[in-house]
Please model this.
Amino acid sequence: MTEGKTLSKSQQAYHWIKGRIASQTFTPGYRLVLGSIAGELDMSVVPVREAIRQLEAEGLVQFEHNIGARVAMVDDSQYRNSMEALSILEGSATALSAPRLTVDDLKAARAINAKMIETLDHFNPSAFTQLNQEFHAVLIAPCPNPRLHELVTVEMQRLNRLRDSTFSFVPGRAHESVKEHEQIVSLIENGAPVVEIERAARLHHASTLDAYLSKEHGADSDMRGDAAATHVH
Model:
């Protein structure tokens, strides 16, 4: 491994902890004991503390008085906020990447979308979500703004922690999603104005959020209706 690729100890700890949060090994509320993590990684607590501070800044970890660091708890408002942020960030990243995407890149994106279509008959929300992330990763890979690319990645990982798969809640949305993927690729392929590409990419995520919120509000209405019926009787 070259020097340029060597991770500092704090970054090693950061990726190790973050990976366990993403995989749900460390679930919301899980207490992060610095000494135990440092022992597991064979390092001092100093880089572990730095890693946890970085994860706190990303909203993945929170500190509680007299308790210490815990994996952050989640609620629906956090999910909505992340989805809204992702629609804006990824819309911009896709637009900036569009002129730099090659023919092979677009072929790769279409191939992934084709796999997503194949899953629709025997739908697996988690597998569909994984392919969905791979599709969007291809489209933003050449983004010339590394910070923007990083922010998209962070929000995507945050969504993974907040919800295993949005499509578990709104499976019908998957059919529309793959159609919108094809539309975005076609816009890029045909050299559409970047503002049009950005709008399509942003609307794509916003539509998924709208579908989720409609489902959520429908469930709330059903619960209120059931409660009202119970009181009538």
In short: The CA atoms of residues 93 and 146 lie 10 Å apart.
